[in-house]
Amino acid sequence: MHVYLTGATGFIGSRVIDQLLEAGHQVTGSTRSEEGARRLAKRGVTPYSATLEDPAALARGAEQADAVIHTAFDHEFVNFAANCEKDRRVISALGAVLRGSSRPILITSGVGMGDPGDGSLAREEVFNRSHSMPRVASELAGQDLLDAGVNLGVVRLPQVHDPVKQGLITPYIDLAREKGTVAYIADGANRFAAAPVEDVARLYVSALERAAPGARYHAVAEEGVALREIAEVVAAGMGLPAVSLSPDEARTHFGWFAMFAAANFAASGAWTKQTLGWQPKGPSLLENLRRMDYAPVA
């Protein structure tokens, strides 16, 4: 297939390229910069210049493609709600190009959208339309496209990690460096599902090739790692104390990150593993955090 990949130079997208090329697919990848275009061309990928701020231009890259994978996202979390609305507009624009065809598109969301609200693990068959996290906007846009007959599937992400980046844990580490402590709330029992980035990339390609309309996949290798465990490993790596905060203290300490520090993102990936035959092989989140170089980047 000729696959159009948004976010092709990103943390996940760059790994998805490896898997697509290995599977024999032709790839066009979106990038924001000339340097990104050069990197893509060297890998045998056709570069396409576009940004999330221009959904129509980004969507035009999909016009000649057989399939679309959308991994691009603005990860400036301090503007998370606005960036989720930006993603909603991009998904709607991409879907408009695919209407009236059977060409598949995979969009990206978070495992929290599968939270049934009863304290159990988030699951693939659940879509919590009233979830408090702004990322629900992505799946609401996707549902509109599904209702319009677009062949759309969703990959829901946990904390995707390697020894350099770890999803929300990366800004958590930056905040710890700024504050001089690695904090968690109360007993820190709230949990974060996780998966290694290379395994997540394999899942995208398997899901695209299956092309099942309406399918929601959880890229979950670990159902949940307690924030306190994460804090203790990060604290050891940084040489800082791990401390428990009350909810009131946490609002002041964490600022914009407070809603993430209090969230429970535990999730099951059992259906995904069974359906796709996907078996994660990479290291655990804590293993990668122990391998990390915590020295500040110059």
Plain-language structure description:
The chain has helices at residues 13-22, 34-42, 55-60, 80-98, 136-147, 169-179, 197-210, 227-238, 247-254, 258-261, 270-276, 285-291; strands at 2-6, 26-31, 46-49, 67-70, 104-110, 151-157, 159-161, 182-185, 191-196, 216-218, 222-226, 242-245. By secondary structure, it is an alpha/beta fold. The strands form 3 sheets. The protein has a 7-stranded parallel β-sheet, with helices on both faces. β5, α5 (136-147) and β6 form a beta-alpha-beta unit. α4 packs parallel to α5. The longest helix is centred in the N-terminal third of the chain and has 19 residues, at 80-98. The protein is globular, with a radius of gyration of 19 Å. The model has no long low-confidence stretch (mean pLDDT 96).
Strand arrangement, largest sheet? Answer: 3-2-1-4-5-6-10
Gyration radius, rounded: 19 Å
- DSSP helical segment count: 12
Characterize the main sheet. 7 strands, parallel
Q: Which structural class best describes the helix and strand composition?
A: alpha/beta
Which regions are unreliable across 5 or more consecutive residues at pLDDT < 50?
Answer: none
**Distance N terminus to C terminus?**
41 Å
Relative helix content: 25-40%
| β-strand number | 12
Mean pLDDT: 96
